[in-house]
Write a structure and sequence with these properties.
Jelly Rolls, alpha+beta, 2 domains, Glutaredoxin
């Protein structure tokens, strides 16, 4: 197991941990970042394993390695830890020092170490839940633990075979599918519009936007962003320094109780300030093609990526 560099911020511990503090324990190192939908969907599994096996000497160390700049803010991370009720230690890897030492390339990524600190198992991305739990139990039993609890498989919350839209970044550095008729201008204000025909898996901006390497910022009120997608849920990673109100429409219609996302109020509005992943539309296990339209009433919103579930 690699040592934790000094000077990093920690949560859920009284003092920064060292690898010597973990000798004798089976340790799962989990690379994550709080606005990543793949990481968010992993949290219930991690919490279940921690609650089931911590008493046998199992530990999880969450290494929060940011993808976007706002994820370096320790208060944002602290709020996410509280929101998801994460009980295990979390360390902030804002400069990707641990990410580099582990030669990691993925969110989430799991590195499972035995009781003497030797790496015994890795898994990248979602899935592999049964195998990971089996390996946790195997390594605990190797160190002499007798585990009484049966394995209770958790329900996988998504059917990846039915999702027809890819994660779509909204900064020009990784943007694919920009489809407003105007030329995309880098790092400069530009008025964009939406054509009459909306195609699947394409991004359309309307209004005055500044598109930067990892985000797009609305510079005048009454701007829009439109995406025609194929999935059960559509999420948007975004935030604002000042409170902003938006309305979300599906196929041009106001959201109803059966399709509004978790972050939509009863009137179909979205209140934005915190930088995080917002769930816009949820058709509750109906994987369908829909057009999502987000109308921002105020300037200043920063949008980073669409993700799907």
């Amino acid at each position: 197991m690699h040592e934790f560099p000094p000077g990093l911020s920690w949560f859920n511990v009284d003092k920064p941990l060292k690898t010597t503090d973990l000798i004798g324990k089976v340790v799962l190192v989990d690379f994550w970042t709080y606005s990543c939908i793949n990481c968010i969907r992993m949290i219930p599994f991690l919490k279940y394993w921690y609650e089931s096996y911590h008493k046998y000497g199992f530990e999880i160390i969450g290494i929060h390695a940011p993808e976007f700049g706002f994820e370096k803010d320790s208060l944002n991370v602290e709020n996410a830890i509280k929101r998801y009720e994460i009980p295990y230690p979390v360390v902030l890897d804002n400069n990707h020092r641990l990410w580099t030492v582990y030669n990691n390339h993925y969110w989430p990524a799991h590195y499972l170490h035995d009781s003497i600190g030797k790496l015994r198992y890795t898994h990248f991305g979602e899935g592999g839940y049964e195998k990971t739990e089996e390996m946790i139990r195997k390594l605990l039993e190797e160190k002499g633990e007798k585990i009484e609890e049966p394995i209770i498989p958790l329900k996988v919350p998504i059917d990846f075979t039915k999702i027809g839209s890819p994660e779509t970044y909204l900064g020009y550095g990784r943007m694919v599918g920009f489809a407003s008729p105007e030329e995309l201008k880098y790092d400069a204000s530009q008025c964009y519009s939406v054509p009459q025909e909306i195609k699947k898996n394409r991004v359309y901006f309307e209004g005055l936007w500044k598109i930067e390497i990892d985000k797009s910022t609305l510079e005048k009120p009454e701007g829009k962003i439109i995406y025609r997608y194929s999935a059960n849920k559509i999420n948007l990673v975004m935030g604002s320094k000042n409170p902003i109100r938006a309305r979300v429409l599906v196929d041009g219609e106001k959201l109803q109780i059966g399709n509004k996302g978790d972050d939509i109020d009863e009137n179909g509005y979205l209140n934005i300030q915190e930088y995080k992943l917002y769930n816009l539309i949820n058709t509750h296990n109906y994987y369908e093609v829909h057009t999502c339209e987000v109308v921002f009433f105020d300037a200043g919103v920063e949008v980073f990526a669409f993700t799907f579930g």
